[in-house]
Write a structure and sequence with these properties.
By secondary structure, the protein is an alpha/beta fold. The protein has a domain of 354 residues. It contains 11 helices and 14 strands. It has a 5-stranded antiparallel beta sheet with strand order 1-2-12-13-14, with helices on one face. The protein has a 3-stranded mixed beta sheet with strand order 7-8-9. Strands 3-6 form a two-stranded parallel sheet. The protein is globular. The relative contact order is 0.16.
């Protein structure tokens, strides 16, 4: 039997698969839309969570920052009342007269040395102070899982580049070569060491940038004055020089940034150049500058409020020392934190209208503004103060060794609770210099030429009044809790280096100023985000650090 195929029935449904295809296409479109919505909403959710975390970090850091203001204020109050470490028997190497400035203990010095002689028992800042040891504030952000690490650097431990602007050409040249030596030494012995030629180039760029006379190629900034007059914009940060192409060339050759702390390929910690150089010390208020100018160029500012050791301005009459040497090039600040740098003060009294950088001359025998704190200065800064031909570097090795000796008398004292580091381990109390006079007890001090000694002590002090507070907030996303106190130091540091953790670092620079009414903290740079985590500079870094 033959069956005939019904072609008419087939022709009646020529697109019977189209509905299925359309259904599949609609399904694919829906999947794509849902997938896109899921990605977008997931991204928005992560961004929102990060924003919440960053807000929690900022709030935690703000809380810790206010606490550190109080720590600095209390430290100054304790020092002023004799309860600080200036009253501790760490000065037993001395025997200098409290009333003789540098004249008594350093008998070979000329009268000018007394201008910076820190009075025995006066304010002293050292690594024994509470602020000087890195700490942690786990409890502040515990509810949000935020850990805040605290590191404070006193700007007085650094060398002030404004010294290159003094009117005294000889002193300005000495200051320039000090800066060169610091840049040459600050990463010595690492694979990112800056050679002497590049160090000199960087120092010249800093000086020319301060003078605003450089013609070096640089990137155009949004802050540039379209009329080309930028003399009213002082240098607030050394990092400003990265705008110059020459700095970019040096960093490219080194394959490393100059203004970041980081670990090298050999796992060696190197520090930012801003940990050794500063522009923030030798501060004055407008009122103090006006009073000094009214008294004449010979008026000393060695007793400037907030820095009675003669670091805050020019020379003060101390011991056998003469006054003079005003700090006309010092940074000035109004009581509300407005800054100015050198030059004549505007009649309006507005600090922002003061002239550009113009460091005042320093008479022979007067103390220099921005003296370096011998108790806290990194070895690089100390060794760069004097040329090797004038002062044997072994002298500084003895100074550094002394301030790392254990103070057995203080350790045996039961008067205070033991100081703990950021990991809860007891700190070893080290010796410190309660007066510059005590340098006379360092070995080979008598072998130093009197003129070299005189020049050296003018650049040294034992107190600090400008501080940069570094706060690093971390939110643990690794699943491990570093705030329970059950982890070892190595485990905590390893967890904190994980790239999965949220972290944020800020820097706040403040001026601790002592007045008749008490101690006040004046923010100079209230809040600056950093793209690196700073490390403490140690005299003798551990190999397994």
């Amino acid at each position: 039997m033959i069956l005939l195929h019904n072609s008419a029935r087939d022709l009646a449904h020529p697109r019977r698969g189209a509905a299925l295809m359309l259904s599949v296409l609609v399904l694919l479109v829906l999947v794509a839309v849902v997938f896109q919505i899921n990605i977008a909403t997931g991204t928005d959710a992560r961004v929102a969570r990060n924003d919440v975390a960053h807000t929690a970090m900022d709030l935690a850091m703000e809380s810790v920052l206010l606490d550190q203001f109080e720590v600095l204020k209390n430290d100054a109050a304790d020092s002023a009342s004799g309860g600080g470490n200036g009253a501790v028997g760490a000065g037993d190497i001395g025997g200098a007269s409290a009333s003789g400035g540098l004249g008594g203990a350093l008998g070979g010095l000329g009268g000018g040395g007394g201008a910076v002689g820190d009075q025995a028992g006066g304010p002293v800042d050292s690594r024994r102070d509470e602020w000087a040891s890195p700490g942690r504030a786990d409890t502040v952000g515990r509810a949000n899982g935020v850990n805040v690490r605290i590191l404070i650097q006193d700007e007085n431990s650094k060398y002030n580049v404004l010294a290159m602007l003094t009117d005294d050409e000889e002193e300005a040249e000495k200051a320039f070569w000090r800066v060169v030596r610091i840049i040459d030494l600050f990463r010595e012995g690492t694979d990112v060491d800056v050679d002497s030629t590049d160090a000199e180039t960087i120092a010249e760029l800093i000086r020319d940038h301060l003078l605003q006379e450089t013609e070096a190629d640089r990137a155009r900034l949004v802050t540039d004055d379209p009329d080309g007059d930028d003399r009213s914009k002082p240098m607030l940060s050394l990092r400003e020089i990265v705008q110059y192409e020459e700095i970019g060339r040096i960093e490219a050759n080194l394959e490393a940034p100059l203004f970041r702390d980081f670990r090298t390929e050999d796992d060696v910690i190197v520090h930012s150049l801003s940990s050794y150089l500063t522009t923030w010390t030798s501060l004055q208020t407008l009122e103090e500058m006006q009073e000094e100018q009214a008294e004449g160029p010979g008026a000393g500012a060695g007793t400037t409020q907030g820095n009675p050791d003669g670091q805050g301005g020019g020379g003060g009459g101390g011991g056998g020392g003469g006054g003079g040497g005003g700090s006309q090039g010092a940074t000035t600040a109004s009581s509300d934190g407005t800054l100015s740098f050198g030059g004549p003060v505007a009649e309006s009294g507005d600090a922002s209208q003061a002239g550009a950088f113009g460091a005042g001359g320093q008479d022979a025998g007067s103390g220099v503004a921005g003296a370096v704190n011998i108790n806290t200065a990194p070895p690089v800064v100390l060794k760069a103060l004097m040329d090797e031909d004038d002062l044997d570097q072994r002298f500084w090795d003895d100074v550094i060794a002394y301030r790392n000796e254990e103070d057995e008398e203080a350790m045996d004292s039961d008067d205070d609770e033991p100081m703990l580091d950021e990991f809860g381990e007891e700190l070893v109390l080290r010796k410190f210099f309660s007066s510059v006079d005590q340098l006379s007890e360092i070995r080979d001090w008598d072998l130093v030429e009197p003129l070299v000694r005189d020049d050296l002590v003018r650049h040294l002090g034992v107190s600090s009044d400008v501080f940069t507070i570094f706060l690093t907030a971390r939110k643990d996303t690794s699943g491990k809790n570093t705030m329970q106190g059950t982890m070892t130091r190595e485990e905590i540091e390893e967890v904190e280096r994980l790239p999965t953790n949220l972290s944020r670092t800020i820097a706040c620079t403040v001026w601790r100023r002592t007045t008749d009414e008490g101690v006040e903290i004046i923010p100079l740079q209230r809040w600056e985000y950093l793209d690196y985590v700073p490390w403490e500079i140690l005299d003798y870094p551990n190999e397994d650090r």
